[in-house]
UniProtKB/TrEMBL annotation:
Keyword Nucleotide-binding attributed: no
Protein name as it appears in the record: Regulator
MF (Gene Ontology): protein serine/threonine kinase activity
Gene3D superfamilies for the chain: Histidine kinase-like ATPase, C-terminal domain
Domain Histidine kinase/HSP90-like ATPase: 50-142
SUPFAM superfamilies attached to this UniProt entry: ATPase domain of HSP90 chaperone/DNA topoisomerase II/histidine kinase
Record keywords, A-Z: Kinase, Serine/threonine-protein kinase, Transferase
Organism annotation: Streptomyces resistomycificus
Length: 156
């Protein structure tokens, strides 16, 4: 099945079947570019690896990519990097930026306008991790490929 881990003896069930990295420019078109990369990546996973990528997974991946890249552009100077990784059951969206401050979802406030991005991402993902790096931070969001989210997501 030609993964990037060929030859290393790694046969874990969560082995990445495909990975792709993208450097996103600082212009206004980079969010649309990131969404396009995500759809193309998922289409390749569906056709090349016969993975069951649901429409829900495609829509949520585009939403999460938009929110994470928007936040990176808004709060961090310099480049934004995005990596997409896929297993047989989920897709990971990894966004790196140069701002070391770890974002926090704010308490629900129906009167607040805007700044709901991280709340939305937390609500639609299976898992959300933030790691501080020597320079900046890396945020990883995991989305299930199937239409039936795990009980963890359904319980939120």
């Amino acid at each position: 099945m030609g993964s990037h881990a060929d030859g290393d003896g790694c046969t874990a069930p969560d082995e990445y079947l495909m990975r792709a990295g993208y450097a996103l420019g600082g212009d206004d078109g980079c969010i649309a570019d990131a969404r396009h990369h995500a759809v193309t990546f998922l289409d390749q996973a569906r056709t090349g690896h016969h993975l069951p990528v649901s429409e829900r997974a495609r829509d949520l991946t585009q939403l999460v990519v938009s929110e994470l890249v928007t936040n990176a552009r808004k709060y961090a100077p310099g480049p934004v990097l995005m990596e997409l990784r896929i297993t047989a059951v989920s897709v990971d969206i990894v966004v790196w930026d140069s701002e070391p401050t770890v974002p926090a979802a704010r308490a629900a406030d129906p009167d607040r306008i805007g700044q709901h991005g991280l709340e939305i991402v937390k609500a639609v993902t299976e898992a959300l991790f933030t790691e501080q790096e020597p320079v900046g931070k890396r945020i990883t969001a995991r989305i299930a490929l199937s239409d039936t989210p795990s009980s963890d997501t359904a319980a939120r």
